[in-house]
């Protein structure tokens, strides 16, 4: 976490340009979308928690490399668990996608200075990883909706297949590929 004081952070926020503006707008909109999905899934929400969530999201805009984002995600999760009783609701995909957007926008805003220009490779990398997480969220919802109401017995084959899928996804997320090449390219000296 950055040790920048709040006045310095506000000054840095005034220097935000280009992609930084979009990332900070996403930091505000995505928690609001998650709260909206919670309201649509449950028919009600807790207004006090919603105000705290949106207030913390504002703090995250100013301090994207702080731990306040964790509180936003935690409060959204607590509100979801307390109000939504249908675990297979399609609104869970919307909430999951909005949390993925929130996390990715905070992480992306904290890796470069506010006025930095994003290259095409950076945008492609962040979009690819975020899209993979969103597709996985939709796939998980589809599996939960498909087995809803059915009793699924434990299976060693199912557990092994699930672990293999998780390992493959972890490798892909780490390197962006599933090939068995070296983890890191050797650095070439240019002296």
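Sequence proposed for the structure above (191 residues):
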């Amino acid at each position: 976490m950055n040790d920048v004081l709040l006045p310095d952070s506000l000054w840095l926020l005034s220097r935000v340009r280009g992609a930084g503006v979009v990332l900070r707008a996403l930091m505000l909109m995505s928690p609001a979308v998650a709260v909206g999905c919670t309201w649509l899934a449950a028919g009600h929400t807790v207004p006090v928690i919603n105000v705290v969530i949106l207030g913390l999201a504002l703090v995250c805009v100013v301090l994207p490399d702080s731990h306040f984002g964790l509180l936003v995600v935690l409060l959204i999760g607590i509100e979801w668990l307390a109000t939504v009783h249908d675990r297979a609701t399609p609104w869970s995909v919307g909430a999951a996608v909005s949390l993925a957007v929130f996390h990715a926008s905070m992480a992306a805003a904290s890796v470069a200075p506010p006025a930095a220009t994003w290259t095409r490779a950076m945008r492609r990398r962040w979009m690819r990883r975020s899209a993979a997480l969103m597709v996985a969220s939709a796939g998980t919802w589809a599996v939960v909706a498909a087995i809803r109401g059915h009793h699924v017995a434990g299976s060693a084959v199912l557990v092994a297949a699930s672990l293999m899928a998780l390992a493959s996804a972890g490798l892909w997320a780490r390197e962006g590929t599933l090939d068995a090449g070296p983890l890191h390219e050797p650095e070439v000296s240019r002296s």
